[in-house]
């Protein structure tokens, strides 16, 4: 009997030692994040659902009951905020805050999307009106998750928890960096995709709640928790994409689960794009104001197009590409390569992990892998790991950000 007790204690300690090191909660309330929803210099509008208050020097105004649809427009010396029966005029230095009376039930509509939290209006540079949403960080994350990752399968839950920690860490780092600025983050891919309340899902909200206040740390500071859709089997070194100092946990390496690439289930794991000679001529004309096909030759002329990879990174991604066409030669680097192959100004080349092939005299075939920059956590890799039984802390600490640790800060 004595040996059984000792064995049980040993097994208990072994199981406990495999759990992530998360420090106890110190602060109960989450901080408030400021998200830029829009920057405009013409007339726009918002609709209030539930009561909001507007505190001015002369009075406290209640809005949202009878006055729930408001226009916002610039004026000669500032901006106007008005409805059919109310008008507020503010000078260029004013910061206007609309505060919901009930943080959970009150929300507002902007461009057919719904948001919780405070509404902040002010003038930015070049007389643009800034529409900013100030909201509890945890509420913000619930909509970021559905904007960044699929949340329609219970088997994705561990990946969603990993994404929640990445998104929380990233947001807190931006809040610290931009503390003195009017807003902390953009609402799109320049930072994180901030989706509408309408898109919130049970699973995404549960993932945020399950990891409340938990962040990823490296030494004594927030880790750089970059993420992307699909790495194509190879993660990228951060210095190859953004330059700067090398970071030990953001190095180039294979992303494998078992005997296959982690993100193999992704619809972007492998892809192909074709471009006609005429399309490349059009792209060259748009980007560099040069066109061979627009000339009026006296006789037949030969138009030579050459695309040459000058440099690849250790992950195989194209770092430098030379394009020679007619009498012009240009060198593109990093994301500018993806932007060049953007037809009609829509989208960009999915990734820089590609090879090129001339199908015939007038068609270029680009065969590629992955979607996004390839730095940090591969979201489709994390989703696959989650389905294979990996836990969120294993996905983060052991797979994508080795050498980091988890910490609960509120």
Walk me through this protein's architecture.
By secondary structure, the protein is an alpha+beta fold. It folds into three domains: 42-127, no CATH class; 139-265 and 373-408, no CATH class; 270-369, no CATH class. It is built from nine helices and 28 strands. The protein has helices at 2-17, 137-148, 157-177, 202-210, 238-242, 277-288, 335-340, 379-387, 392-400, and strands at 32-40, 44-49, 52-55, 60-63, 69-74, 78-82, 87-91, 95-100, 107-110, 113-115, 118-123, 129-136, 185-186, 214-218, 221-222, 227-228, 234-235, 253-254, 256-257, 260-261, 270-276, 305-312, 318-325, 328-333, 354-360, 363-369, 377-378, 405-408. The strands form eight sheets. Strands 4-3-8-11-12-1-13 form a seven-stranded mixed β-sheet. Helix 3 packs across helix 4 (202-210) and helix 3 (157-177) crosses helix 9 (392-400). It is globular and about 75 Å long.
Summed up:
It comes from Caldithrix abyssi DSM 13497. The chain is of the alpha+beta class and 410 residues long.
Q: Note the beta-strand portion.
A: 25-35%
Largest sheet: 7 strands, mixed
Uncertain spans: 1-17
Strand order of the largest sheet: 4-3-8-11-12-1-13
Spatial shape: globular
Q: Tell me roughly what share of residues is in helical segments.
A: 10-25%
Structural class: alpha+beta
Count every beta strand, where a strand is a DSSP E run of 2 or more residues: 28
Rg result = 26 Å
Number of domains: 3
Oligomeric state: single chain
Helical element count?
Answer: 9
Average per-residue pLDDT, rounded, comes to 89
Straight-line N-to-C gap: 43 Å
InterPro entries: SpoIID/LytB (IPR013486), SpoIID/LytB_N (IPR013693)
Domain Sporulation stage II protein D amidase enhancer LytB N-terminal: 126-218
Protein name: SpoIID/LytB domain protein
Pfam families: SpoIID
